[in-house]
Hints:
By secondary structure, this protein is an alpha+beta fold. The chain has six helices and 26 strands. The chain is elongated.
Amino acid sequence: MKYLSKSGYKVKPKRIVLITLLSLFYLPNAMAASQDELEARINSLEQRLISLTKESIDLKKQIIESNKQIAQLNQNLQKQQLVINNQQKEIKIHTAAIKQQKSVDLQPVGITHPNNDRQIVLVNHNPVDVIDNETVEYKKSFTLTEFKDYIKEEIGFSFNGYFRGGWSTSTNGKPKNYAEGALGRFGNEYGGWYDLVFKQKVYDQDGHRVDAIVMIDGNVATDKAAGLFNTQDDNIMQFSDIYLATKGFVPHFPEATLWVGKHSLPYNEIQMLDWKTQKSPAGGGVGVENLEIGVGKLDLALLRADVNVKVNKKIAGTDAIKVKHEDVDVNEIEVRYRDIPLWKDAFFAVNARYSAPNKSKLQDDVTIKNAWVGSVVLRQNNFLGGFNQLTLQTATNSVASHLANINTNNPEFAANANNDYIGKHTGGKAYRLVSEGEAYLSDNVIMAHALALTTGKDVYSYDLNLPHTNFTSFKSAVRPAYIWDQYNQSGVEFGYFNQKNKVNGKTYKEEGYKTTLYHSFKVGESILSSRPDIRFYLSYIESLNNDISKFEFNGKKRQISFGVQTEVWF
């Protein structure tokens, strides 16, 4: 304290004043210097922040661009894998096509599609692979048709079918079809038949494939606006096929098709007369097709085809008769050996089917006879630019009776679509020779035909409802046409038939003819194998004799009808 007091005491007042003035002068300058420095530092920080922000934006852009490149790379890899898978499937398809080349030549010509050569590019570079130290380059572009087929194959679902229909009238009320199975169906049918086929692949791996297939068919009447399903107005529908088809499951026959379900071996249709030379409608069944044995291919099927039988039974204690319906089990076995090569573009086939009733112990009084049908088929492809197929058949009992029908001549065991077994069959036989085909008579003239010559003895006549009938018949339809171009044809169809049934010393005659003029809008030149088809027609039909059918056209023996009809496979 002494020291401080002494020191404070020694400071002079003048010096205190000087120090105070100097302090007042220096303090503002010092504060000004600090403010400038602070602003400078803030500006520097702002510049640095702006620079960092720009760098962050650039980095974000680089990340986005890198993600785009990675996504594009993944997309290219996926597309490249798609091309490789398609290439492998294409190799498999080509291999199978080579093995079945002969079969393709023998099968009826199916739907034709116009060529589509527009290309779509799946990848932007040529995908390559190295196989056995060699670089293999795959195709990088495919037609739209190829791409659609590939997608359909990958999905494994397909929907296809058939239908016909149109408008028609006549000069005498409602037009009526007459003996279309004998005179030809063109200008002589007025219904709307359809087939709808749904197919779904359920397994395809290691050479084993399984498909579920459902087919619906029926008729839609075209004379009324309402089309409710019932048999009175000819609006009907049925599930004609429900089965599972497999490939690759039969040992030693990788290309064979094994199927189980409601199905049968393929039908062979005579298009112009609208009936089949090969048809085995069935309930449940099992079959195998395309067994390559020897020079041909073998098809086998075991089928159920039960029938309803009317039986007259006496009521106990009385003389009264009661009609009872019996359901009789029928099994059929069918064998076909086909695609037998003869000479260039010619193939031979042998077919047989045996139908055997399997009655129970309670059905000893039910009369039902077994029956069989046998066929030989000769097909000549590339016949005058078209084809020709000859079929020789023989049948017994109820199957032979079908060959005696005026109209529908399918070789079936039951008498009708209701699976009824009708009539007394006593070992009768029938024989039939059928010719179908088309040929180019010149560059612009094509002609299709269907001819059937049939005879039989001791058969049951479903038309007359009489047993022990002998018959002969000739059925024909010939259609020459002038080809204007790929999309236009004009022509005429001539039809004629004559049948004689002899029973109990009496002869019944049925005879008629048809002339149909038409112009058709088409998508191909072939008459029998190109669809869709739009036909404008004028048709004249006359029944010369009707002892068997008693048919008439609304009180007349002749009819003039006209209309337009379409027919399409899809």
